[in-house]
## 1
Amino acid sequence: MNRARGRALIVGNWKMHKMAGEGRAFAEALLSRSASLTEAVELVVCPPFTALAAVAEVLREGPIALGAQTMHQGEFGPFTGEISAPMLRELGVRYVVLGHSERRAFCGETDSAVNAKVHAALRFGLVPIIAVGETADEHAQGLAHERVRAQTRAAFAGVGADAAATCVVAYEPIWAIGSGLVDEPYGAARTIGGIRAAVPGLERARVLYGGSMKPANAAALFAEEPIDGGLVGGASLELESFIALAAAARHRLPL
Ligand code: PGA
């Protein structure tokens, strides 16, 4: 593992799951069960907005970081239903997922909106986790590299190399999300190599794999040097599987 990229990173994306009380209970259990893991693996949980405050209260300044699943690019303003970076910062949020394929598909989030959000996150001190990925058709046509490199370049337009190096990119093939299908580890690692080469600074940034990552397939993915961790949906909702993923990520580190 390239030590310059630091610890492995496992991000739990809860999507539209867990009430505030469930989130709080999960965070308490995770905190007490993960003490031996957090030195080697950075853990982030991304609850829905309605559970952020309850989870923040549990995680406070501890070793597990809080993330949000999206945000608006503005600071304040007439944007009904939106949440800004300063509002997230006020709750103790440190990471924000931007451009998840579900937001691109269901909420019309464009490459240029993702780019504006990346700039806003950096300006207000949040670490963006930028999701990119190709559709099943693009994958079948051999267009995955081209697609994710274009998305990555668009997301980072106008971002300097040093700032880009502080960001996280998540390569999430859309056909693998929630489907039980997982990209072949060597192929995912090659695509991630292409992502790193697309934007100056990303050779130093953490790049994750996402899409049906489970304890059973994680070790093979983490054995690939370019994969720094995972953006995890379904398997992040159960404490045991989330902890098993963190343990698998820890084992990739040389002692
Ligand atoms: P999944 O979701 O792990 O349930 O496939 C990953 C994601 O959408 O971030």
Note: DSSP finds eleven helices and eight strands in the chain.
## 2
Amino acid sequence: MSPPFDEDVFSTLVEHSLEAFALIQPHGRATYVSPAITRILGYSPDEFTTLDLFQIVHPDDTYRGTERFQQFLKQADSSYASVHRIRHKDGSWRWVECVFTNRLQLPKVSAIIANLRDVTEQKQTAESLRGSEEKFRGIVESATEFAIVTLDLEGRVSSWNSGAHRLLGYDAGEVLGKDCGIFFTPEDNASDRPEAEMRDALIDGRGTDERWHVKKNGTRFWGSGFMMPLRDDRGAIHGYLKIFRDMTRSHRAEEALKDASRKKDEFLAMLAHELRNPLAAISNAGALLLVSASEPETLSWVQEVISRQARYLSRLLDDLLDVSRITQGKIRLHEEFLDLSPLIAKAIESVRPIIEQKKHTVLFTVSPVEIPVFGDALRIEQILINLLVNAAKYTDERGRISVTAIRGTEAVVSIRDSGIGIAPEMLRHIFEPFTQVDTSLDRSSGGLGIGLTLAQSLVELHGGTLVAQSDGLGQGSEFVLTLPLADK
Ligand code: ADP
């Protein structure tokens, strides 16, 4: 069917088209090209027809001699489409989409009809898109500190970066297509946490992810991050992006801080209680004095109460002051050469009242040899008294306390009791400040949970160690103190 307009109209169409049309001979010369060629390649139509076209095609893209081009030349009416680089008159390369149609057999035409369109911009856009996608993929892959995971709408893993592999231990192949519950804890899965995270992401645009996660080997780590919905070009949500990293260490530190602050609060409450008790006793004694001051029995009782409670109060305050001095590094030791055995005997004498009150038996094996140490006599006595008071306090009536001192490569003192013992999980905590295993214990003999902290710090100031041992609750306890031997 012929076009519904005459030849003039037809040639006007060709002459004004944005695409260039050309008639090309198989040896590579154009016999005609439309004016649009100037816009595409810079040459005037006359210039273009003088060129060897194979010469201006990029050597990597040339089709001269290719099997496909030979086939095309042989086949009448066949078409050949390709996109290749052609050199612009200014020397730059332009990407040109060419559609060749073989009309060599058609007597009136006897040429290859070429339709040329400049696609440089599209090519560059596509190229830079690919470049930025690659760059983005590179960033995701190099973010090894972060697990970057995408999920489909059902919560199945759809991509898995190397950070996720490093953090969770699974290869991409092991998790792709699997439900993300695989790296949530069983507790969180039971309470539908993964679904809740996705729901939050949908509703708020972001779901926080601050929870324990499970690695392939079953160990747990504290994951911190977020989940957000993934949208396509039209804004429709087609999945989720989850980014998180291992924050176990700082989470633990945070928990420890909270724990320390909680312990401090408990300590303050207890301190108030401990200070009020002696004050109540002193004020009762004062009240009694008002009504019956003339009775000698009352007087001596009041005297005894006041001096006992005052001693107790000053011991509490001394301990408190010592703790604050130790934390500020302000304790000064007055060191001298000492023999440990007499010091131990003196400490035992100081705690005699509580030992007698609880009817304990104390066995002290005196070392046949001198145990020379270089230290502060008052402080070492303070340490020993602390340990002995605890042994007496945490042992039911008529218990046994045995104290031994040995001179080995260092001085070793052991204070063992037959008391309530210490549960294994508490052993490493009892030296922490304000720690008390059982706060409901009868507190008549006082204590603020700082005695062992103080004792251990003082021992360490002397270059020694203090450790606790116990086979468990009801099995008694042993505190072993070592100090360096002194060379006189
Ligand atoms: P407190 O003032 O409570 O005695 P300490 O720092 O001296 O504080 O001791 C800390 C905790 O360690 C005690 O509350 C107690 O639970 C435990 N403890 C200390 N010594 C013994 C012991 N000989 N036997 C059993 N438990 C002990």
Note: The pocket of adenosine-5'-diphosphate is lined by residues 390-391, 394, 417, 419-420, 422, 430, 435-438, 447-453, 477 (CB under 6 Å).
